[in-house]
Task: structure prediction
Amino acid sequence: MTSVDAIIERLGATRTCDAGLTKDPWAFDTTKPSYGPGASALDMIPRNAPRQQPLGKEYTEASDEELQERIIDAKHKLGSKLLILGHFYQRDEIIVHADYVGDSFQLSKNAATRPEADNIVFCGVHFMAETADILSTPRQNVILPNMSAGCSMADMANIDQVTDCWEQLTDICGSTPDADGKQQIIPVTYMNSSAALKAFCGRNGGIVCTSSNARAVLEWAFERGKRVLFFPDQHLGRNTALAMGMSLDQMPLWDPFKANGGATPEQYANAKMILWKGFCSVHQRFTVEQIERARKAYPGVKVIVHPECSMDVVNAADGTGSTAYIVKEIENAPAGSAIAVGTEINLVNRLAAQHPDKTVFCLDPVVCPCSTMYRIHPAYLAWVLENLVDGKVVNKIVVDPQTASEAKIALDRMLRVHP
Result:
């Protein structure tokens, strides 16, 4: 039984957000480029997005049981030279094989602790594998099981757009430090971005943040600059800035598809936070109405959501934080608790199964997983592992040395702020 089917059965859901979820991921390897079925199905994918080569029938026609056995056998043959990383949002059939499970940066740090592993298989999405390649040793191979596993939010800001924005904002705000020595603008990129954008921050005095350390990173940035250009997720930036006491009128949006970003030069000049118009399609699905329904159905329910949700949803919830925060909140809740969660369905469903003494459910009643996490299926994991057994490295992720060096500067700054 596939994870989507299992989730539907467990939750008693009557529908999904996309009929394509009933198909296997390889059905989309030969269609026109897309993120695939799920939350990002309607998001526009870049023309140059990586494509996965079609799998052979020995993988696509194998049973679930056979794939599991082949993965276990390959893992045994590869031994300590293999490290499998599994993101929280992966399907259970992948998580069961992971040596580490966590969020994107936590997993990249895990990889750095295993220099003896020749091959790091990252069951996540493209930007995560890039970060692992940057933080791993030069002799290690970082492998993404499905090259079509991208991230629509990361793709909402590319290096050409950000460079153009930076040049326009520099014209408006200037480039000379003020009397206190502060830069006019500090670029801050969310971890969910390409290596090129991390490198941009590295060479322009900027930094990377995660959903768990965004406040500490912004405090670091404002010690050094008058304004922050925050990309690509507007919601994490806005929610964190509001919690720090900034007002909405200090946070104009920069829309890369509008002339001059869509706001006036005065608004950018007077800004504290300039927010890129990007978002996560999974977390966009959560609404205040869903929270209200959960409170009505479960009086006393605790509502916790990811900070990639909208400002209105975060304000209506009882708590907000990273995936690691959500996991800990549920682990620490007393037996009998009811907890409604606003984040990806695979994680919520897994947490519900792990804590049967608590009522844990997703705010969105419609099953709608992350489109690109969904692209990682046991068939692809078996394919990359069996190729490694045969001495072949497929789907290797390589960040060029210059980009990696500059990106690591921004990542190291973050680690000094919040290890």
Observations:
- The chain is about 40% helix and 15% strand.
